[in-house]
Design goal:
The structure holds two protein chains of two kinds.
Chain A: E1 2-8, E2 12-19, E3 24-31, H1 37-47, E4 55-61, H2 64-70, E5 77-82, H3 88-91, E6 115-118, E7 121-122, E8 128-130, H4 134-146, E9 151-155, H5 164-173, E10 182-184, H6 185-188, H7 194-224, E11 231-234, E12 240-242, H8 243-246, H9 256-272, E13 277-282, E14 287-292, E15 299-300, E16 303-304, E17 310-311, E18 315-316, E19 319-321, E20 327-331, E21 337-343, H10 362-368, H11 386-401, H12 405-427, E22 439-443, H13 447-458, E23 462-465, H14 472-479, E24 482-493, H15 499-517, E25 525-536, E26 543-547, H16 554-568, E27 577-589, H17 605-608, E28 609-617, E29 620-628, E30 637-639, E31 642-646, E32 649-653, E33 657-661, E34 667-671
Parallel strand pairs in A: 1-4, 4-11, 5-6, 5-9, 9-10, 13-22, 22-23, 29-31
Antiparallel strand pairs in A: 1-2, 2-3, 7-8, 11-12, 13-14, 14-19, 15-18, 16-17, 20-21, 23-34, 24-27, 25-26, 25-27, 28-29, 30-33, 31-32, 33-34
Helix pairs in contact in A: 1-7, 2-7, 4-5, 9-14, 10-11, 10-12, 11-12, 12-13
Chain B: H1 6-30, H2 34-37, E1 42-47, E2 53-56, H3 62-78, E3 88-91, E4 103-112, E5 115-125, E6 154-158, E7 161-162, H4 164-172, H5 177-205, H6 207-229, E8 235-243, E9 253-262, E10 265-269, H7 285-299, E11 313-316, H8 334-352, E12 367-374, E13 377-383, H9 413-419, E14 422-429, E15 445-451, E16 456-461, E17 482-487, E18 490-492, E19 499-505, E20 510-514, H10 529-538, H11 543-548, E21 554-557, E22 560-563, H12 565-574
Parallel strand pairs in B: 10-11
Antiparallel strand pairs in B: 1-2, 1-5, 3-4, 3-6, 4-5, 6-7, 8-9, 9-10, 12-13, 12-16, 14-15, 15-20, 16-19, 17-18, 17-20, 21-22
Helix pairs in contact in B: 1-5, 1-6, 3-7, 7-8
The chains are: A alpha+beta, B alpha+beta.
């Protein structure tokens, strides 16, 4: 029985199917169908050519929710707020988009015409100050209905402290809209600070119907190829949830796509004994980085999805910068070269595609230096225009910088790589991690091309290019465990906290998480983690403190906080300790596929050598052997310069690096001692 | 120009930006006062020996950059020959390059292998620094002594040894010393992060390369700025604006600017501006200069911020002027005056290059403090307001923004209600407050607050009540500030409209603050009628204003709002 993992990207839909019993692995890549991604998915599943009955589990990473927000194509929502506070989204956090410059625009996800206040008021301690005016709610419902709202978001002040009014309003609204289309802030994010809570709840309401109709279409499409298995969906936290659970937790899928890659990187790290890993996914437009100290991805509680669209939910901390193959290089008025963040995208694309692109990109620079084979581009049958690329680099980069064309192409890559290294440094050194103790896992279409460059510039000693670097996110779907994160507001000083109540909240959250897991197939073992966000009383921001049990006593909590605080800051403070919340994570472990199965070759290195070409490194053109990835034998070791070719990625082994093929088929690049 | 390769230059510049950004994060996340932790009223930067800016973090207040330059220079001069590894200097002296006493600067020299490279500096707004009013924001101080403890440049740490006596003296003279000490430690956290990162960086690239790159980066910023300035037509452009009053005497304070553009040089002369004032609206000369710099930097955001950007700009402030505060003039209201200087520069530029310049922003911090005792504990809440930005040739102005000289965000209502004895009644956009124009100015904000404990004291330093944000290229003015109170059931407004000290409030009393929008761009009669209709539907513009200012008749038909084309033609033809 196969487990199938599916990742839908902007250009390609990647599929991996794995049979744990037979050890068989099937990989497929088909064109994405952005207008309706479910078509690409169906075609991909069809192309796997597996017997429908032979597929036992389908796991899917999707960017449908993110795209709905970024392109403002979500469900038309209405907002029900406390009277006097219906502008919560309009007001945002009173910020401008950039430090410098006063321009820019801001469109809240819900327009002001559909934001209505109703009489009710709850105080910070949960006391009802003004009872909910139910007639107001009914009037608002009628108004929102006639204004075309398909979903209603309820966000009342201090609802985290007392959800009574939100629940009562929900019941009334559910007479007008289907239950799933009424979303209350106290369910989605029961934490204080009205704007991030309202924003997160709005993102949930805005994406929920989009996700639901997408899942409906998926089920229909799969039925067309006779598959009726329930899907599991990759969530932003790197864990899976069943499609039915995801339907009312849509905002938890925002990082569904990149989370799959980070999860697979974690697995690669574990297999290869590299405990500290940085996962680097470089595609056409972006460079997504996640850091995994001790093999687990670093989590964050918040991200800014768009200007003034914060989302506060647990997710893998994936830091994205505009540095991909398509990133545009330009010389600014001060004579300084910049690479990215603008991207030529797939259309018009880099200059070399000859589709009308005139801006020099990182891909163009790689082509000019012949790190990319002009005769066999990734993505198939296009003729790369070498001459046009040369001319564009000469005119736009080399001439203003007074450099030779080769040097200019190098500079384009160097400046792009430096931005990526800056990102790596911020996540490693910037968080107190020593880069020399880390290993890069490089994947995505452009990751393996730059892995070697990243090593030289970042002091990270080792990079692993997995056997299938182009489909790693899909592989992550097959590997991932189920995971449910639950949170509850505490807001009390440690010394005054009712410890018994604290422990019982932990128990309740754990029970809730276990219930979500029930009914998800393939879970073999359940693990639970406990954390609290804590701070010194008087501070605004918290540190997330890992608790080592479900029933920690006061001294243990105190000590864990102090340790964690001093990991972040140099100065301890003499002040009472405050607990903002309690977080419980319930993980359903699954048996991962045996990655040994990837390795099929036992030939020799010279068998794998399929060509040679002149490639530019440092200051010179060097004769460079080209190896075929699938023919490289296990255990073989060779030195750069070399290039490893495969269908969906090109791996560059720079001079000064060695490359070894390990037992899992990974190419391991290391700086030579 | 040195011969550093362009790649190294890019790397050095990027690395500097990253170092200060990490300092910003460390300070904000470990600070105690909401004004730093939630509102980002702080900055971090690296400065050369003579104070020139190498780089500033992008989370904090732009106005602090220029001011830090003067402060660092003053410290370097005061301690010439006595600046050693492990030293940390402290000062909040407004007159040597400052703002107001609440902004505390810590400055640490960074040495690499014994050789001085740069000053690492951090500014943080402490919620209290002593003085007559908790939280500092009084509209009625008449000298610096009433505003709190003034700390001249002093060595807080010498060779790594902290002077605890000095700290104790400071903390003894401020309200809520526990929180203040927390903020102080947060600033130390930022300095540690800066020092560690610099050390790694310089070790990797070598001192000589880094120093040469700093010179080169500065030259390049200057060239970029000059390229922009050369595009402005040569000539003299003047502009006059006013502060409502100084908080003591009810008469406007004049700011007069003559800006001369000559090739790629710009000179700004403030001759004709008002003399020093009795109330707290004076600003130090450094603050005037910084505000001028900020205006140009907002106009040309693409240039990396360092001292080179400002090389082509010169500023003259006359002797005996409220834009050149001397001891012991009070300066707590720098938050207002510096913004009007910025507005004045925008105003003059609006005459030179109207297509590039937005209408004036709301440009008032309207900072108020509410203080007293609740549940046996002293509380001090400092709250800055938001407002609208001016429209540009291409876009409507942003609603409800942080002031242009700052980037302070607002603590959320739920945080404020948890910490202080008050209850918000509303928090909303202010209808009709945006300046009318082909592109409309952004909307200001309306705040309604009920006090819930007796014995509260309210102080305010605001402005833009009488002289409202102007439009550009035919765009109209925005609505001005308005503060209204209900005290003991009676309506009350401040005699000086926007400034007061120690207004006594009790439980049940109400404060309403309405903030200005931004000025419009282009004649309102040219605004597309559909955009006017959309503004009416959205509640940004009233049916009345649509008619009076835009000449658009919006009528209701079958419960739907629509434009009456005939009436609109008539209204617009009359213009």
């Amino acid at each position: 029985m196969y487990h199938a993992g599916i990742d839908i990207g902007g250009t390609f839909t990647d599929l991996v199917a794995f049979d744990p019993d037979k050890g068989d692995l099937v990989v497929e890549k088909v064109a994405s169908t952005p207008a309706d991604p479910s078509i690409g998915l169906r075609d991909g599943v069809d192309a796997l050519e597996l017997d429908a009955a032979g597929i036992s589990r389908l796991v899917h990473g999707t960017t449908v929710a993110t795209n709905a927000v970024l392109e403002r194509k979500g469900s038309p929502c209405g907002l029900l707020a406390t009277a006097g506070f219906a502008d919560v989204l309009e007001l945002g956090r009173r910020d401008r988009p950039n430090l410098w410059g006063l321009g820019g625009t801001y469109e809240p996800l819900i327009p002001r015409e559909r934001a209505i206040g109703v009489e009710e008021r709850i105080g910070p301690d949960g006391t009802v100050i003004t009872p909910l005016d139910e007639a107001d709610v009914r009037d608002a419902a009628a108004e929102l209905k006639s204004a075309g709202a398909e979903t209603v978001v309820i966000s009342f002040l201090h609802a985290y402290a007392n959800p009574k009014h939100e629940r009562a309003a929900s019941r009334i609204l559910e007479e007008v809209w289907p239950n799933d289309n009424v979303v209350a802030s106290s369910e989605v994010l029961p934490e204080f600070r009205e704007f991030p809570r309202a924003s997160t709840t709005t993102v949930e309401g805005y994406t929920r119907p989009v996700i639901a109709s997408y899942l409906d279409r998926l089920e229909d499409r799969l039925a067309e190829v006779d598959i009726d298995r329930e899907m599991l969906i990759m969530q932003s936290n790197g864990g899976l949830a069943s499609a039915s659970v995801t339907r009312d937790r849509a905002a938890r899928t925002l990082l569904s796509g990149p989370a799959g890659g980070a999860t697979a990187a974690a697995h690669v790290a574990e297999l290869t004994g590299n405990t500290n890993v940085i996962s680097c996914d470089m595609g056409g437009t972006s460079f997504d980085v996640a850091i995994l100290p001790d093999g687990d991805p670093l989590m964050t509680q918040a991200m800014e999805l768009d200007f003034q669209v914060p989302v506060r939910l647990p997710m893998i901390e994936i830091s994205t910068i505009g540095a991909g193959g398509g990133s545009i290089a330009r010389v600014d008025e001060g004579g300084i070269l910049r690479t990215g963040p603008e991207s030529a995208g797939a259309d018009p694309g880099p200059v070399c595609y000859g589709k009308g692109g005139t801006d020099v990109t990182i891909t163009d620079a790689n082509l000019h230096l012949r790190r990319i084979d002009p005769a066999a581009p990734i993505g198939g049958d296009i003729d790369l225009d070498v001459e046009r690329t040369h001319d564009a680099i000469a005119t736009d980069i080399a001439s203003p910088l007074d450099l030779g064309v080769d040097e200019a192409a190098r500079a384009v890559i160097d400046v792009g790589v430096d931005k990526m290294v800056g990102q790596l440094r911020e996540l490693s050194v910037g968080r107190g991690h020593d880069p020399r103790e880390f290993t890069i896992v490089a994947f995505g279409g452009a990751g393996p091309l730059h892995a070697g460059e990243l090593l030289s510039a970042s002091h990270i000693p080792r990079a692993i290019v997995p056997y299938y670097p182009g489909i790693l996110s899909a592989l992550g779907c097959v590997i991932a465990d189920s995971r449910h994160d639950l949170v509850r507001s505490v807001n009390d000083e440690l010394e005054e906290l009712d410890l018994g109540a604290y422990h019982s909240w932990i128990d309740d959250l754990e029970a809730e998480g276990r219930e979500l897991l029930a009914g998800e197939s393939g879970v073999e073992e359940v693990g639970v983690q406990y954390h609290s966000d804590m701070k010194y009383a008087g501070q605004s921001h918290t540190v997330t403190v890992p608790l080592n049990s479900a029933k920690p006593d006061r001294p243990a909590i105190r000590e864990r906080f102090r340790e964690t605080y001093l990991e972040h800051y140099s100065e301890a403070v003499d002040a009472p300790i405050r607990i903002d919340n309690i977080q419980v994570t319930v993980i359903g472990h699954r048996e991962p596929p045996d990655m040994h199965r990837f390795v099929r070759q036992a030939g020799t290195l010279s068998d794998a050598r399929i060509a040679e070409r002149s490639v530019h490194f440092d200051d010179e053109w060097r004769d460079t052997p080209i190896y075929d990835r699938e023919s490289l034998p296990t255990g073989t070791r060779f030195e750069g310069p070399a290039i490893i070719a495969q269908d969906d990625a090109t791996t560059v082994v720079n001079p000064g690096l060695s490359c070894e093929i390990d037992e899992y088929g990974n190419a391991v690049l290391e700086a030579e001692a | 120009m040195t011969d550093i390769d362009p790649v190294t230059l890019s790397v050095v510049r990027g690395r500097f930006e990253q170092i200060v950004s990490e300092m910003d994060t460390a300070l904000v996340r470990s600070a105690f006062s909401p004004i730093i932790a939630e509102a980002n009223d702080m900055t971090n930067g690296l400065f050369r020996a003579d104070g020139r800016t190498i780089v500033q973090g992008d989370l904090g207040l732009p106005i602090f950059t220029g001011n830090m330059e003067y402060t660092v220079d003053a410290v370097a001069t005061a301690f010439e020959g006595d600046i050693c590894p492990g030293d940390v200097f402290i000062t909040n002296d407004p007159y040597i390059g400052g703002t107001h006493l609440m902004d505390i600067k810590l400055i640490k020299p960074y040495f690499h292998d014994g050789e001085f490279l740069t000053f690492i500096a951090t500014t943080g707004h402490w919620t209290d620094i002593g003085g007559s009013v908790p939280g500092g924001f009084s509209g009625e101080t008449t000298d610096i002594y009433q505003e709190g403890v003034r700390i001249p440049p002093l060595k807080l740490e010498a060779g790594g040894e902290r002077n605890d006596d000095l700290l104790e003296l400071i903390f003894t003279n401020v309200r809520r010393p526990g929180d203040i000490e927390g903020d102080f430690k947060a600033q130390l956290n930022a300095l540690s992060v800066g020092e560690e990162r610099l050390s790694e960086f310089v070790t990797e690239y070598g001192l000589e390369t880094v120093q040469a790159a700093v010179d080169d980066i500065e030259d390049r910023s200057e060239r970029q700025m000059r390229a922009h300035l050369a595009e402005i037509p040569d000539g003299a452009y003047d502009y006059v604006d006013f502060m409502d009053n100084d908080g003591i005497e009810d008469r406007p304070l004049r700011i007069e600017l003559e800006m001369t553009v000559d090739g790629s040089d710009v000179h700004m002369d403030f001759a004709g501006s008002a003399p020093p004032c009795t109330g707290p609206l004076n600003i130090p000369r450094s603050c005037t200069v910084s505000a001028c710099h900020i205006a140009f930097k907002h106009l040309y955001p693409d240039i990396p911020t360092n001292a080179g950007c400002f090389e082509p700009l010169t500023v003259t402030v006359p002797e005996e002027c409220f834009l050149d505060a001397r001891p012991p003039r009070p300066t707590i209201g720098y938050t207002e005056t510096s913004q009007r200087v910025l507005d004045t520069v925008f105003g003059a530029l609006g005459k030179a290059v109207p297509e590039q310049v937005p209408g004036q922003a709301f440009s008032t911090s309207g900072a108020f403090t509410l203080s007293g005792t609740a549940d046996g504990e002293d509380y001090v809440m400092a709250f800055p307001v938001a407002g609208g930005y001016g429209a540009s040739a291409s876009e409507d102005g942003l609603n409800h923004c942080t002031p242009p000289y700052a980037r302070a965000q607002a603590p959320t209502i739920e945080v404020l209600e948890t910490l202080y004895p008050l209850r918000f009644q509303h928090h909303s956009l202010r209808e009709d407050s945006g300046g009318p124009g082909r592109n409309r100015g952004g909307l200001g904000t309306s705040y309604g607050i009920e006090v819930t404990a007796d014995g509260a004291s309210f102080s305010l330093v605001g402005d833009r009540g009488d002289h409202t944000p102007a439009g550009v290229a035919g765009g109209g003015n925005a609505a001005g500030s308005r503060y209204q109170f209900v005290i003991d059931g009676e309506d009350y407004e401040l005699p000086l409209r926007t400034k007061v000290q120690g207004l006594a409030l009790s439980s049940g009393d109400e404060i309403t603050a309405k903030t200005p929008g931004g000025g419009g761009h282009g004649p309102p009669s040219q605004r597309d009628t559909e955009r006017v209709l959309a503004d009416v539907k959205r509640g940004y513009v009233s049916i009345h204003q649509a008619r009076e200012k835009y000449g658009v008749a919006v009528v209701s038909s079958d419960d739907e709002l629509e434009v009456d084309e005939g009436q609109t033609r008539e209204l617009r033809d009359q213009n």
